[in-house]
Amino acid sequence: MDAEVLVVGAGIVGVSVAVHLVQRGRKVMLLDRRGPGEETSHGNAGLIERASVVPYGFPRDLATLLRYAGNGQTALRYDWRALPTFLPWLARYWRESAPARLARASRDMLPLIAHSVIEHDRLIERAGLSALVKPGGWMEAFRTEAAFQGRLAVCERLAAAHGLAMRALDRDGLQRAEAGLGPGFIGAIHWMDPKSVVDPGQLTRGYARLFQSLGGTLATGEATQIAHRGGTWRVHTAGGELAARELVIAQGPWSMELIGPLGYRIPLKAKRGYHMHYAVASGATQSVPIADCEIGYVVAPMQRGLRLTTGVEIARPGSAPSPIQLARAEGWARDVFRLGRRLDDAAWMGARPCTPDMRPVIGPAGRHPGLWFAFGHNHHGLTLGPASGRLLAEMMTGTGPYVDPRPYSPARFG
Ligand SMILES: Cc1cc2nc3c(=O)[nH]c(=O)nc-3n(C[C@H](O)[C@H](O)[C@H](O)COP(=O)(O)OP(=O)(O)OC[C@H]3O[C@@H](n4cnc5c(N)ncnc54)[C@H](O)[C@@H]3O)c2cc1C
Questions:
Q1: Which range of residues forms the domain containing residue 228?
Q2: Letter string b/e over residues 221-237, b meaning 16 or more CB atoms within 10 A of that residue's CB
């Protein structure tokens, strides 16, 4: 045996599962073909989004649908050639986004969301990573009064219902809070409970160092095949075979690659996204991440500079990057965020691992002993990594679990 438990995938989810397992006395190996936090867990907007109490549903109103159908938006773009394979998944996503079902998804996600900051804080403290994380929340900013007032009414209801700290800022209030912004926004909603990470890749690598310091083994290699023989999981890599009694699949958007051949049919799709860093123009400061809500992108102050992250792109798996949304967003952002020069040679591209019912897949595989899943964290994998890692580790070690795991069960997909 190379370990009692082998975790495949060292994004924020796999690393968090691995840390929680070693903390509970398991001998764990964490395997990644790159390194910890090199993929989407590196390139996101850095929000530990405690205030995201309603998952991102498929738009249901005709005006938004028509706008998106035109394919000229910044928030969402699709490649026509991807639609034949995406349509059944999108239809299911649309169904799951009906008001009553979205409300149920929201209720199901709340226990994990409510623990998101607390579980990060515990790991941050233990790993000594507080310099990477800022309190202060984030803002939804608006360009038109109608959109601002409409969203404000919704947010006031959500804040009251869930006990979230929120304040509305008019144009002057926003200018006082974020004096570096140029003209463009007429107001903003400031969510105060979330935290933001100024280098999400570093945070993930910091958690991986904590895992190693607790006795875990970090290995580099690509898992190409898995098999269960004689009560042992065998994982084939170019460097040889690894063996463990239990196996955790935490490969983010690639999670079906090893388990598809075993007969699992979980509808996991990747929603792609891009980022670019910009120099901070002299005199410009920004204290918290800000979403330009009517256009659909986020600008977050990071260690490297201002990171602009885009909305959703639906594209064929493996197709070349097409950073069209980034160019569109940059046009909108340049003046209002006073973006300086581009700092990266090319746009970074990542993939959100998404399920049509907007819940992650956490728990026993169901049809194979000792096989566990932790993937499908949609738009909130950075937020939920440690909360999900704790939940899976508690299920695997028979302690807890601290929240009801049934909404996330792989069995819901048959
Ligand atoms: C533009 C953008 C902005 C975002 N902003 C936010 C945000 O502000 N807050 C938030 O909470 N979430 C955000 N997200 C979503 C979040 O980043 C993801 O949900 C999260 O990173 C998923 O983590 P993961 O560990 O599941 O996957 P990943 O980070 O993709 O990790 C999967 C790992 O598996 C490894 N792997 C895959 N296959 C194999 C194999 N065969 N063998 C070995 N290793 C393998 C990969 O190398 C990789 O390291 C954003 C996403 C995007 C694209």
A1: 3-41+201-268+356-413
A2: bebeebeeeeeebbbbb
